Amino acid sequence: MASIEFVHVTKSFDKHVVIKDLNLKIEDGKFTVLVGPSGCGKTTLMRMIAGLDPQTSGSVLIGGKDVSRVAPGQRGVAMVFQNYAIYPTMSVRENIEFGLKNNKVPKEERTRLVESISATVGLQDYLDRKPATLSGGQRQRVALARAMVKKPSVFLMDEPLSNLDAKLRVQMRVELIEMHKKLGTTFVYVTHDQVEAMSMADTIVLMNQGQIQQEAPPETIYHLPSNLFAAQFIGVPPMNVGDLGEDGVKFGFRPENAVLSAEPGDNHFSVRGIIVTREMLGSETIYQVRSARHSFMVKCTEDLFTVDQEVCLGVKPDKMFFFGADGKRIERD
Ligand code: ATP
Q: Which atom of ligand 1 is found nearest the CA of 46?
């Protein structure tokens, strides 16, 4: 097992600075998710950990040791990508065994390891099959098993589920959480999907434009986002934000924390508006409410209103957020 540290790391491609003076400690044995919009630098960070791309300056430490001069194969790191490489002509067993054979692990030990790992990922009944006869999820498991069998101290996964359909993705998320529990290894997982990040992470590292916006457990980012970016990245639909009209200060509230009623209630923040859209999703309904100055999304557990209806939107004061002109959340007493 191993922690990972970035110390004043900068990465440029030619003159283009992608990561600027980044400091980050990824804890040993934790499930850490790097999340952020496309192009924010997630894959670049992973490649620096793996040793596939050297940092321009600063140091990368694995298990407390500077690995800047350590070759990728010697770092104790395994990586699983979105487009995972499994060999189509080899059976599942041969695919899993491949790295072990290369490392000259004796036959008996190989067999034992392949059997134990394939049971961990639920492939024990498929060992003699060829990849073409497997489902997408099973193929993904072969890729995971291939990485696992080498007993890495760090697992790097870059959008490993994005080629799977929605249902399988949800199932594989649960399986990965289970695998992490069983292995107790450091997992670093990249996604641009905040739902995936929220459901899997012990710690989320939220990035934008090569910089860390917030590093915290999912519930902290949800309840105490450090800035407007974090507030609007985590949560579906995103947090509603509006201008207070005072020196660039903004207010915000989550769609699930607003209450709609026909008449004003005793909520502190309230505004009149018209329902412009209604999306019934089964257990909840999402309304878009237009007031004189803003448009807000509201998530309700009951479906009581119709389009064009006039409503009063209320939010309790403790559910309101405020952000300064610099975008940072303003702490309240
Ligand atoms: P995505 O979610 O789309 O995969 P990402 O957050 O993983 O995005 P990176 O792949 O790390 O983003 O890319 C970060 C930035 O670095 C982007 O602006 C990208 O264009 C740039 N970049 C990445 N690799 C290279 C390269 N080999 N040469 C030049 N620029 C690169």
A: 11
Q: Name the residue at shortest CA distance from atom 19 of ligand 1.
A: 39
Q: Of 77, 99, 74, 69, which is closest to residue 86 (Cα–Cα)?
A: 99
Which residue's CA is the closest to the ligand 1 atom numbered 14? 41
Domains identified in the chain and CATH numbers: 4-229 (3.40.50.300), 240-323 (2.40.50.140)
Looking at every residue in the chain, the average pLDDT score rounds to 92
Sequence-distant (≥ 6) Cβ neighbours of residue 14 within 8 angstroms = none
Q: Is the CB of 37 under 6 A from ligand 1?
A: no
Instruction: Say if ligand 1 is within 6 A of residue 44 CB.
Output: yes
Sign of the CA dihedral 70, 71, 74, 77? Answer: positive
CA of 82 to the centre of ligand 1 (A): 15
* pLDDT per 10-residue tile (average), the chain, 333 residues: 93 95 97 95 95 95 94 90 81 92 90 90 92 88 87 90 80 88 93 92 96 97 96 94 91 97 83 97 96 96 96 95 96 76
| Single pTM value for the model | 0.89
